[in-house]
């Protein structure tokens, strides 16, 4: 038997904590299935945006892919959270996954049949987003039961690794596949990969609700709203994320950047999207120290501030490339590498900061909320996480439509200012102590 050296111990403390995977085989299966299925989901997200842009040549039309789904997603998040608190969470997760899979299958069928209906793509993307919102709320509410409150930061960081793999591999592969073989095969791969999600959910143990849980309806919604109203720390996790995603989400600009500013077309779009994910992935892989942070509220504030600064600097790079005349066309050549490299670097920093924020925000929510309330709060959390970027899409689309060329610069500055203001106004969030979690 070999003994551990101090270097080995430091490395283990630096790298992600794998204890949740070892302690809970059910969590390990859920994590693996979600990670694999999510790669296909990200491929389809990129492909739908590119297909809409190819049909319409409109950034605003691309932004509507997310905007149209926003209101149904809000309703689905709220109702799905109530379902997760009132019924077996495993059953809720399984049925919502089936609906999401069927939506992806229909998107693939649309492409194979040679249709070019933007309206149909909007509808199917909305159905997929609604089902994914319900699924995300139920799965997130399941995790504390599988791993325990003490391992929530480690489980959240592992979720960041899964998300990082998804949005690193998925968009990059999508960009290459769309350029090489088109949209239909790209969507079909998602149909196959999504099947892994069923394995992770189907093998979960039964997740029965607490005794006396309210059925979905107005009373359940009011009970959740009352809890959230008096829970300032949990509310702050939502508000801060909305600010970051509304003013600092530049993804809707990627097709135009690839076509008109940097050049490179679909490959550039995939590279920019993947860069953000690489930052998230790296920060998750080296997330060991995050489990020892006690002032988690203050850490959220710093992480989102770094995020805002990185987004603003990304905007500066794009503005500089545009001022130099830009490059148009789908062809990828070495001439675009300086601008693409600078933009990708700051997106990677933004992705890492966003992931650190997500780890702490998710931990605060799950640790401070009682189990009987987790489904409803996770429903709201899922709406914020998935709906916030869509509001950001609308912000970027409207700013560009108004003739303002650099929404990331404006948005990044707004994020820094608003975060500083809110942390000053809500001191209890700054003082939040992970050893003594409390909602208010």
From TrEMBL:
The keyword DNA damage does not apply. It is found in: Cell inner membrane. Keywords: Cell membrane, Membrane, Transmembrane, Transmembrane helix, Transport. It is a multi-pass membrane protein. InterPro entries: MFS_dom, MFS_trans_sf, TM_effector. Pfam families: MFS_3 (PF05977). The keyword Transmembrane helix applies. Residues 174-440 form the Major facilitator superfamily (MFS) profile domain. GO terms for molecular function: transmembrane transporter activity. Its main location: membrane. This is MFS family permease.
């Amino acid at each position: 038997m070999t003994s551990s050296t101090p270097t080995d111990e430091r490395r283990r403390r630096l790298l992600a904590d794998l204890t949740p995977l070892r302690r809970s085989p059910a969590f390990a299966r859920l994590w693996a299935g979600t990670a694999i299925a999510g790669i296909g989901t990200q491929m389809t997200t990129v492909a739908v945006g590119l297909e809409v842009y190819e049909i319409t040549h409109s950034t605003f039309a691309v932004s509507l892919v997310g905007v149209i789904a926003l209101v149904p997603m809000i309703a689905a998040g709220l109702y799905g959270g109530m379902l997760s608190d009132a019924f077996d969470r495993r059953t809720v997760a399984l049925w919502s996954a089936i609906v999401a899979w069927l939506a992806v299958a229909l998107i693939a069928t649309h492409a194979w049949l040679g249709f070019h209906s933007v309206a149909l793509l909007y509808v199917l993307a909305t159905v997929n987003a609604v089902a994914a919102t319900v699924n995300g709320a139920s799965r997130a509410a399941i995790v504390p039961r599988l791993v325990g409150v003490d391992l929530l930061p480690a489980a959240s960081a592992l979720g960041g690794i899964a998300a990082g793999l998804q949005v690193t591999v998925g968009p990059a592969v999508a960009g290459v596949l769309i350029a090489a073989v088109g949209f239909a095969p790209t969507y079909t791969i998602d149909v196959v990969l999504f099947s892994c999600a069923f394995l992770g959910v189907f093998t979960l143990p039964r997740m029965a609700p607490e005794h006396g849980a309210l059925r979905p309806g107005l009373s359940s919604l009011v009970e959740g709203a009352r809890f959230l109203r008096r829970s300032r720390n949990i509310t702050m996790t939502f508000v801060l994320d909305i600010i970051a995603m509304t003013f600092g989400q530049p993804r809707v600009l990627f097709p135009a950047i690839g076509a008109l500013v940097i050049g490179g077309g679909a490959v550039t779009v995939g590279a920019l999207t993947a860069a953000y994910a690489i930052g998230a992935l790296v920060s998750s892989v080296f997330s060991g120290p995050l489990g020892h942070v006690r002032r988690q509220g203050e850490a959220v504030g710093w992480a989102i501030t770094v995020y805002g600064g990185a987004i603003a600097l990304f905007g500066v790079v794009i503005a500089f490339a545009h001022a130099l005349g830009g490059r148009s066309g789908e062809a990828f050549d070495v001439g675009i590498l300086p601008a693409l490299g600078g933009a990708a670097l700051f997106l990677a920093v933004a992705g890492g900061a966003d992931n650190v924020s997500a780890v702490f925000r998710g931990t605060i929510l799950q640790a401070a909320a009682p189990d009987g309330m987790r489904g409803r709060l996770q429903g709201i959390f899922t709406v914020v996480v998935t709906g916030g970027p869509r509001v950001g899409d609308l912000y970027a689309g409207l700013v560009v439509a108004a003739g303002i060329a650099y929404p990331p610069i404006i948005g990044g500055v707004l994020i820094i200012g608003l975060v500083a203001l809110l942390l000053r106004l809500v001191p209890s969030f700054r003082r939040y102590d992970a050893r003594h979690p409390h909602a208010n």
